[in-house]
Design goal:
Length: 306
């Protein structure tokens, strides 16, 4: 059984498996960290699966699970469920910037106490189960994971995500680069994706070049992304980013599928046109192995939304 949230005495906060995964790769959570169920009156011990796996796909992703079902309290709605009411679907939320102190336990506790009612408190209507909450994500990788899941479930056009207070569908948000007219899309911020190659630079950064092009008149322009060593060294989850990129270079000769939440950029007066994506926030890029190409078939959509 996959469980969405847990508590940990190591940090004194209620957290999702995605947050536990980030904390582990930021060296702020031990591999053997203890987790407990958030159900009413329940303290069943939980495991965070795939915590130390740098790569993710539909079969490998972080999630909490129980050692044994009988460890959960009889009052635990997480393990046993309560009532027949179907949970209301709410948009996921993609946060463009992490709040200050996001990786500090004290800030997380203060935020939690101000905004979240702990699930252990007895509800006046326990049969209805826990109140559903929107999932907040900071890394594009989390959004890509949801995109793959919605593609599998064939509901990309219905599933929604909120960014900056505006909601859009996963189908409209994710756009394949291949042969789209780049001049018409310079103001379009989306999750652009496509096959790419990546290599390390002498300075300790990485250079990424997409394999398939945008169109620009009669020309085909393959966009690039440069990740500087300085930006990577300042990134809290740099250990995870480097582990993923180095593994792709070693095992797949740099061949990958890249995603970037950005706008295409072209210089106005260059002798020869080219396209770049500037990714100043490394939360806004995700690079995965070529094995996910099968999962990505038929998921692109050419549209006019931003």
């Amino acid at each position: 059984m996959s469980i969405e949230e847990a508590t940990t005495p190591d940090r004194g906060e209620r957290l999702t498996a995605e947050r536990a995964y980030e904390l582990y790769w930021a060296d702020l959570l031990d591999r053997d960290a203890r987790f407990s169920c958030v159900g009413t009156g329940c303290a069943a011990p939980l495991i965070c699966a795939c915590l130390d796996k740098p790569g993710q796909n539909l079969r490998i992703r972080p999630y909490f699970r129980s050692y044994r079902l009988e460890d959960h309290a009889a009052t635990c709605e997480v393990a046993h469920g309560r009532g027949e009411t179907k949970a209301v679907k709410r948009p996921d939320v993609f946060e463009a910037e992490r709040p200050a102190g996001h990786f500090h336990a004290k800030a997380a506790r203060e935020k939690r106490s101000a905004t979240v009612t702990p699930a252990r408190h007895v509800s006046s209507a326990p049969a209805a189960g826990p109140t559903p909450r929107a999932s907040h994500y900071y890394r594009l990788s989390s959004l890509v994971q949801k995109f793959l899941e919605h593609r599998r479930d064939k509901d990309l056009a219905e599933a929604t995500v909120e960014i900056g207070g505006e909601a859009t569908t996963y189908e409209a948000l994710f756009r394949n680069i291949y042969r789209q007219k780049v001049a018409d899309l310079l103001a379009t911020r989306a999750v652009w994706w496509g096959t790419a190659s990546i290599r390390g630079t002498k300075e300790g950064g990485y250079y990424l070049r997409f394999s398939r092009p945008f169109r620009h008149g009669d020309a085909e322009l393959r966009p690039t992304i440069t990740l500087t060593a300085k930006d990577i060294d300042a990134y809290p989850v740099r250990k995870l980013l480097r582990a993923r990129l180095d593994k792709l270079i070693e095992e797949a000769d740099g061949y990958c599928v890249a995603f970037a939440w950005a706008k295409p950029w072209m210089p106005k007066d260059a002798e020869k046109p080219f396209v770049r994506f500037y990714v100043n926030n490394l939360d806004h890029i995700d690079v995965r192995g070529p094995e996910i190409l099968e999962e990505l078939k038929n998921t692109s959509r050419v549209g006019t939304g931003t």
